[in-house]
Design goal:
With 291 residues, the chain is of the alpha+beta class. It contains eight helices and six strands. The strands form two sheets. Strands 4-5-1-6 form a four-stranded antiparallel sheet. It has a two-stranded antiparallel ribbon with strand order 2-3. A hairpin with a 6-residue loop joins strand 4 and strand 5.
């Protein structure tokens, strides 16, 4: 199966100014001698690290979201996006890009003040050369869509033996992508079932564990994109996902928290799904501790 009939790859590229610089051993020793180690280790902080965290947070959130809606692919830095989700991915990444540049602009406005603060903390280690004149330049947020194919067998560029080798590599990549995609969807679902089952148990203090909204919301987000992401038609997983969808029936975490009978009903059904997963996928999900 050529999965590029079902979608395409996407590569998200984000760059940020690190705000740190390596120090020599002599410089480190001198700072330790002076007792000023808050901003110095093997590197010196060029600005307060807290000032860059909002930018990093947007980046991490964007990457996590993309991973949740795509499938893994055996090329580093790329993931596979099913055809019906491409437009949604493009629109959502555009929103993250706007948020990213909003945080960069806020940092840029504070840049001069942050540099003066660094001058105070770094003392002799402060160096104007470490600070870009155009602080916006080190930042970027971009993505591209990619489709792979077997090289044209009629081309004069590749010798026949090279073409056959590349064709075989392409087939192997497709098969590897298939295995990775099926395993990723199964593992993601298994982790959610395991997490919700765990929430129905009691903690070390004998009290019920906290049942957070995200415990249920993660299922509904998974249900929303599962049909599009299940491009290899994993029927065994599809049946289990349908069961989980019927068990939850759109109920909120608050409903489940406040209804003991409902909690028990969901607990039993999820335990049954978890047991079936172990049988169907041959992957026991829980370690049994024997006292």
């Amino acid at each position: 199966m050529n999965i590029f009939e079902q979608g395409c790859l996407i590569q998200l590229s984000v760059s940020k100014w690190g705000g740190v610089k390596k120090l020599s051993k002599d410089q480190i020793a001198k700072m330790v001698e002076n007792g000023n180690t808050d901003w110095v280790s093997a590197t010196k902080k060029l600005v307060d690290p807290e000032s860059l965290k909002p930018i990093c947070k947007v980046t991490n959130t964007a990457r996590s979201w993309l991973a949740s809606i795509s499938l893994p692919f055996p090329i580093p830095g790329m993931v596979f996006v099913p055809r019906d989700l491409i437009e949604r991915v493009d629109e959502t990444l555009s929103q993250y890009r706007s948020e990213f540049w909003g945080k960069v602009n806020a940092f840029q406005q504070d840049y001069a003040w942050l540099r003066e603060k660094a001058r105070l903390y770094l003392g002799e280690l402060f160096n104007e050369v470490d600070y870009p004149l155009d602080i916006e330049k080190p930042f970027s947020f971009a993505w591209r869509f990619v489709i792979l194919d077997v090289p044209n067998g009629n081309t004069r560029i590749l010798a026949p033996e090279v073409y056959e080798r590349e064709k075989e590599k392409f087939i192997q990549t497709m098969e590897e992508a298939r295995g990775m995609a099926i395993e990723a969807l199964r593992e993601e679902f298994a982790q959610m079932v395991e997490r919700i089952s765990d929430r129905f148990t009691t903690g070390p203090d004998g009290k019920p564990k906290v049942f957070k909204n995200s415990t249920v919301q993660s299922f509904y987000e998974y249900f929303e994109t599962f049909r599009d992401r299940n491009i290899f038609q994993d029927e065994a997983l599809s049946e289990l996902v349908d069961q989980a969808q019927r068990v939850l029936s759109g109920r909120s975490a608050e409903e489940i928290r406040n209804n003991q009978n409902l909690r028990e009903q969901i607990r039993q059904n999820m335990a049954s799904i978890e047991e079936t997963m172990g049988e169907v996928f041959n992957q026991p999900r829980r370690k049994i501790r024997i006292e």
